[in-house]
Design brief:
6-stranded parallel β-sheet, globular, Rossmann fold, 5-stranded antiparallel β-sheet, Hypothetical Protein Yjia, Chain: A,domain 2
Length: 312
């Protein structure tokens, strides 16, 4: 029976990078698969990166597949599963596993598929700086997970993974009968044998009090299409200013592409992680997620930065 693999994790945890490596391994095993990408904001960023490599990428954008897009998620699974061995699901970073189980149980009841591996990716750098709201969302992603995989452990500064695990365990009382499992190998060092083992990490439905959420009430999303060209260092300085000062609202994620003199720049920034890298030419687009976003101010600052680059 086809299986549904869920790879969840908070905003910026590294889900798309993990899925790209996992999909490469599935390709080598001649496994037929599709990927469902869920963008809380506008469409196009993660799905564009994956579709260039693998094709058969399907996108649900403008909300969460656990609340506003739940019905569309169910029907898309119905369409894909008869033609696949596995369907890989990357929800937005705002996700509730209880809703995933409701959808997957309906799929299983109809005899179309069953749940495969269920992982939560965690960047240990983010744990000390998470707000209570962010911790509550991560808790929702841990309550039923089959296991945690650390991400970005190869990035500075080094993290105390024992303390990070203790932090995760403090997020909720999961009972001695279902302790939280943390996989020994971090995502940056996974090999073929690891993917075989990870596929056996099925969900564990721990006892907990369910909290119903509409993530649109907790976070905002806005999309910009910056024109002009940007220098990588100057853009990084600007985004650090926007994120750290709160001048444009409380921003938790900026992701997308902008024009550069020699092509495009890929942008992937969170509160704890700032990544800007040259890439092949792509349409300019930035998706921004946070609280009380000042879209006009963000747009103004980007336009001013682009104008300075043009003058220079």
């Amino acid at each position: 029976m086809p299986e549904i693999d869920l790879i969840t994790g908070f905003l910026g945890a590294g889900k798309t990078t993990f899925i790209a490596r996992y999909a490469e391994w599935l390709n080598r095993q001649n496994v037929r698969f599709a990927v469902i990408e869920n963008e809380f904001g506008a469409a196009g960023v993660d799905s564009m990166l994956l579709s260039e490599k693998f094709g058969n990428i399907h996108e649900l954008a403008g909300g969460c597949i656990c609340c506003t897009l739940k019905s569309g998620f169910f029907h898309l699974l119905e369409q894909l599963l008869p033609h696949c061995d596995r369907v890989l699901v990357e929800p937005s970073g705002l996700y509730n596993l209880d809703d995933f189980f409701e959808v997957a149980d309906g799929i299983a009841y109809n005899g179309l598929g069953q749940i495969g591996m269920c992982l939560t990716l965690v960047d240990p750098h983010t744990l000390p700086v998470m707000t209570e709201t962010e911790r509550s969302i991560l808790r929702d992603e841990l309550e039923g997970t089959g296991g945690v995989v650390w991400t970005k452990t190869d990035e500075e500064p080094c993290c105390d993974l024992a303390e990070a695990k203790a932090c995760l365990e403090r997020l909720g009382n999961r009972g001695e009968d279902a302790p939280l499992r943390v996989y020994d190998t971090p995502s940056c060092a996974l090999c073929d044998e690891d993917f075989v083992r990870l596929q056996h990490m099925k969900p564990v439905r721990r006892r907990h009090q369910r909290v119903l959420r509409d993530h649109r009430m907790m976070y905002q999303s806005t999309s910009l299409r910056p024109q002009g060209v940007f220098d990588a260092d100057a853009l990084l300085h600007l985004l650090e200013h926007i994120i750290d000062t709160g001048e444009c609202g409380e921003i938790v994620r900026v992701k997308g592409f902008v024009n550069n003199h020699s092509g495009s720049l890929a942008v992937n920034c969170t509160v704890s992680d700032r990544f800007i890298q040259k890439c092949s030419e792509r349409l300019p687009m930035l998706n921004i997620i946070g609280h009380q976003l000042d879209r006009a101010k963000i747009k103004q600052l980007l336009e001013e930065q682009s104008s300075r680059e043009h003058i220079e």
